[in-house]
Structures are given as C-alpha cells and as structure tokens.
Write a structure and sequence with these properties.
single chain; globular; 8% helix; Transposase; mainly beta
Length: 77
C-alpha cells in the first residue's frame, strides 16, 4: 500500500466500517506506520490522542484537509 505513509489522509474502509461502525464517518491522518506489525497509528480529525487501527480498516481519503479545496492531499497533484 503505497499511500500508507505518515501524513496521508485516510477514512475507514468498508471492512473497517463493518468492524467499527461508530468511526464510520471519521477521517484523519496517518501518524505512524510499523514495519513489524499490522497496526497503523492514526489521528482522527479533532482528536487529541492517536488510535491504532489494523491496516485493513483504513483506505485513502479523497477529502481535503479541513474541507478546504486549496489545501491538497499529500501526493495529490
């Protein structure tokens, strides 16, 4: 998964929504990626503390930071 780097925006995948329905509408940013485990440390928008989710629970988000179209996604043209 090339997109899964620190700073990448994410949303929950369909599988993640099935497993964590309370987080279905939340988006955020990847803050740490482990080479040894399947856990990805993420920070949901508005949260004070990071959360670790299984890498299969998240997918890239097309939403722009803060909903502002003038701030592109990491790696977006």
């Amino acid at each position: 998964m090339d997109w899964m780097v620190v700073g990448a925006r994410f949303k929950l995948s369909k599988f993640g929504i099935t497993r964590c329905p309370d987080l279905a509408r939340k988006v955020g940013v990847v803050v740490a990626v482990s080479a040894r485990t399947t856990g990805i440390t993420v920070l949901f928008d508005g949260a004070n503390r990071p959360t670790v989710l299984h890498r299969d629970y998240i997918s890239p988000s097309t939403e722009r930071i803060g909903g502002d179209r003038s701030v592109p996604l990491l790696g977006a043209p």
